[in-house]
Amino acid sequence: MSSSLPPRPFPAGPIASITGTAVVVRGDDIDTDRIIPARFLKCVSFEGLAEGAFADDRTELAGAHPFDRAEHQGASLLLVNRNFGCGSSREHAPQALMRWGIRALVGESFAEIFYGNCLALGLPCLTAGHDTMRALQEAALAAPTEPLSLTLAEASLEGYGQRWPLELPAGPLQMLTTGQWDATGQLLSHHAELSRTLAALPYANGFH
Q1: What is the spatial distance between Cα 191 and Cα 71, in angstroms, rounded to a whole number?
Q2: How far apart are CA 24 and CA 65, in angstroms?
Q3: How far apart are the first and last CA of the chain?
Q4: C-alpha distances in Å from residue 120, one per residue of 8, 35, 117, 133, 184
Q5: Are 89 and 35 in contact (CB under 8 A)?
Q6: How far apart are alpha carbons 106 and 159 in whole angstroms?
Q7: How far is CA 187 from CA 13, 14, 182, in A?
Q8: Are 92 and 37 in contact (CB under 8 A)?
């Protein structure tokens, strides 16, 4: 189930657009236990979770799972169906997808907690109606190596000879395009102010 591709950098700061090929994982109500089986939750860090992404499904399909097929290695966009990420609230699920290489998801709908966990990692989750999603998946399956361009501000996907209208609520759009989702990045960007505050704290400088 491993990929020979080098790891790609994780998202950081504002996210305006994402370009890459797509991988399709069909089916409604795909839960977090299928995305990352419980046995992988014993890890002490999120490193290495890419191996666990859809691990049981991939074992069952013996190399035929979309995440194992050669034409999908390096894919950045995951195309899914209804209620993706339902079940437990495990934050390992979007971590596993991100570490495999996914940078955005497009589907009919997403479970609320999974959606929030993705947003906290800078993984946009955009939605489309059933008919649009079905047509988009068919187009992706027919041209698996064709690159797509996802634009967040317009909530649209360009590719396969057309523009696909999507939906992204105003709140997540603002967080993603301004970098507000990236709490660590915001913290580091205020290093000087934090250092001054720390220097002024008596208990941080040996005083009691």
Answers
A1: 43
A2: 10
A3: 55
A4: 18, 18, 5, 24, 10
A5: no
A6: 14
A7: 11, 14, 9
A8: no
* Residues 178, 165: Cα–Cα separation, whole Å: 22
Domains of the chain: 17-181 (3.20.19.10)
Give the C-alpha separation, 33 to 41, whole Å: 10
CA atoms of 104 and 153, how far apart (whole Å) = 14
pLDDT at 187: 52
Q: How many CA atoms lie within 13 A of 43 on its CB side?
A: 19
Pairing of strands 77-79, 104-107: parallel
Beta carbons of 166 and 108 less than 8 angstroms apart: no
Tokens in use for 165?
């209208």
Q: What is the pLDDT along the chain (208 residues), one digit of tens a residue?
A: 544 444 566 787 899 999 999 999 999 999 999 999 988 877 656 777 888 999 999 999 999 999 999 999 999 999 999 999 999 888 899 999 999 999 999 999 999 999 999 999 999 999 999 999 999 999 999 999 999 999 999 999 999 999 999 999 999 999 999 988 866 555 555 456 656 766 777 766 665 4
Give 17's DSSP letter. Answer: E
């929030």: which residue's tokens?
116
Mention every residue, 6+ apart, whose C-beta is less than 8 A from residue 169. none
pTM: 0.84
The structure tokens listed for 23 are: 């991988």
